[in-house]
């Protein structure tokens, strides 16, 4: 399962959802990958985690690094990486992962692709630094999926067409 997280009306805070939507529009995945617009859902995502073998999260990540910096964080390191909050949904994601572990819902393998935001204000578009690194974000996602043995093929679909997998909106 791949979950794009973030608030689309807060500029770079929505980078995870933007990335997930781009992947959905441009690629088909084999074996099937479920693509989820997690928005700012937090604990509402818990039922989706049950019986997943792998979970890939894409989200804005607070850091002193320059905007557009991409970090790949794995398993147990994720909750500590979310201690500095970009937004309130990070509290929800940290709680989600803790509760999933407690209930034995946590997938054996979890990866967070975190992108350092530049602009966190009421705006629908990504800042220029994040817009420029979107191809690198997609490449990073594809690399993680390839490590998991998941192949993707470009499908060139745009707009409302489904590209691959199954998309759920939360």
From TrEMBL:
One Pfam family matching this protein: HycI
Molecular function (Gene Ontology), one example: aspartic-type endopeptidase activity
InterPro entries: Pept_HybD-like_dom_sf, Peptidase_A31
Coiled coil spans: none
Organism expressing this protein natively: Halochromatium glycolicum
Protein's name in the database: Hydrogenase maturation protease
Keywords: Aspartyl protease, Hydrolase, Metal-binding, Nickel, Protease
Any GO BP: protein processing
Similarity comment text for this entry: Belongs to the peptidase A31 family.
Keyword Protease: yes
């Amino acid at each position: 399962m791949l979950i794009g997280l973030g608030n689309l009306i807060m500029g770079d805070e929505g980078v995870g959802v933007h990335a997930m939507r781009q992947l959905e529009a441009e690629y088909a995945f084999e074996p099937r990958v479920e693509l989820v617009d997690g928005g700012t859902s937090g604990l509402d995502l818990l039922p989706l985690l049950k019986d997943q073998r792998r979970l890939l999260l894409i989200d804005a990540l607070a850091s002193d690094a320059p905007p557009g910096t991409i970090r790949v964080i794995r398993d147990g390191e994720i909750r500590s990486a979310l201690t500095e909050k970009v937004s309130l949904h990070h509290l929800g994601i940290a709680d989600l992962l803790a509760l999933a572990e407690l209930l034995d819902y946590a997938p054996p393998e979890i990866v967070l692709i975190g992108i350092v935001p530049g602009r966190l204000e009421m705006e629908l578009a990504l800042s220029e630094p994040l817009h420029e690194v979107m191809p690198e974000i997609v490449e990073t996602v594809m690399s993680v999926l390839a490590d998991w043995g998941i192949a993707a093929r470009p499908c060139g679909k745009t707009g409302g067409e489904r590209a691959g997998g199954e998309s759920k909106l939360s």
